[in-house]
Specification:
The protein is α/β, with parallel strands linked by helices and 242 residues long. The chain is built from 6 helices and 13 strands.
């Protein structure tokens, strides 16, 4: 049975949203050295979860995306240090929207190496979003301590710049906002999407990442392994509508 635990924060909540204590920082073990962290933000009248991931290595912890909630940047670092006695060494954001990039400048100020693709940086600059210190110019294999993973750009979908991370040995697909949950009724916000290519992009992910054991999505239930197949169906219907 998967064990869930919450990191309870001790400081008072005084932000203008009047954020409830129920929407703080949750950390869930995934498998081995992999953990899913969840923060929340107020969007269109509701608190929306935003899932990210961190990986523990013998060279420190690696963050995949940053908290959406600005009050959780430091508590996430503190929680990783307290629970695992690890410092976060670098962070990768998977596209330019704030739910992925909001903490990049803060983490850069803490001495953490921050990365996005060159394309993400172009969109971040254009849209006045937070930017990373280091830029990735092509599909890249990262080797961090004892772990290796692919950063892969499959094409436009949720945004024109969305990338995924693939751990081929562990069979973990970190899909970010490109992939929607198996319970989703639609592909979510499409204001910056490439509707015409969405299905093709997802099919490329499916080919790149065969038989994943885990698929991590940003805003839905990440425990359902059917999320990628379901997203492809949604993209196919969307393209037909268009």
């Amino acid at each position: 049975m998967r064990i869930f635990f919450s990191v309870l924060l001790t400081f008072s909540m005084t932000d203008i949203l009047g954020q409830s204590e129920n929407y703080q920082l949750n950390i869930t073990p995934l498998t081995g050295d992999f953990y899913i962290y969840t923060t929340y933000n107020f969007y269109e009248g509701n608190y929306i979860p935003a899932h990210g991931m961190y990986l523990l290595t013998n060279q420190g912890a690696v963050l995949f995306d940053t908290p959406w909630d600005t009050t959780r940047f430091q508590p996430l670092l503190d929680s990783i240090k307290w629970k695992h006695n690890k410092d976060v060494t670098f962070c990768i954001a998977t596209h330019w929207h704030s739910d992925r990039t909001e903490g990049l400048e803060y983490y850069k100020q803490q001495g953490i190496k921050t990365y996005t693709t060159l394309l993400t940086d172009e969109f971040s600059k254009k849209n006045n979003k937070k930017r990373a210190e280091f830029l990735i110019t092509k599909d890249t294999v990262f080797n961090v301590g004892e772990y290796s993973f692919d950063l892969y750009y499959p094409g436009g979908g949720h945004t024109e710049d969305n990338i995924i991370a693939w751990f081929s040995k562990e069979k973990i697909l970190y899909g970010g906002c490109l992939i929607k949950g198996a319970e989703a009724d639609n592909l979510g916000y499409l204001g910056d999407a490439n509707i015409a290519e969405y299905k093709t992009t997802l099919k490329k992910v499916q080919k790149k990442c065969p038989d994943p054991k885990f698929i991590i999505v940003s805003h839905h239930d990440w425990t359902n392994i059917n999320s990628l197949k379901h997203s492809i169906k949604l993209a196919r219907k969307l393209k037909r509508k268009k």
